[in-house]
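Practice record 12: protein with FE2/S2 (inorganic) cluster.
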Amino acid sequence: MTEAKRATKADLERIDSIIAEGREERWGLIPLLQEIQQVLGYIPPEAIPGIARGLGLFPSQVQGVITFYTQLYTAPRGKNIVRVCRGTACHVRGAKTILKLVKQQLGIEEDETTPGFEYTLETVACIGCCALAPNIVVNSNIYGHLNPKKVASIFSHYGGH
Ligand code: FES
């Protein structure tokens, strides 16, 4: 289960100084959000009202942009990002079972992060190497032609398990 993590006072102060810098440099909302994410690894939801105030927007507008851009996150992510392909080629070659095994192995569901922030689990539509189906990607490493035995061995390379 993803551990709830609240931004510290220091995180919020850091965000305030990024907002101030952004105002000075006349950044738009997206560059500002990207900078906050770059520094903290995510955009704490409790920072949204301050971000909105800094840019003269409504918090709902800031939230809307964060929701729209899949590259912006409001929760901390794991050190390793695991993406299980659920595209057609992988699906017909057993992606459902692979996903189930990965979930078991990591002890989390889709879109969750392990309590120690080692892994975040996601699914993707196609990773572009259908000939190797079924596939998963861990960070930038592709693991293809997967079977249960291979799945079991993958995560020992990344630690935390
Ligand atoms: S469908 Fe999985 S890589 Fe294309």
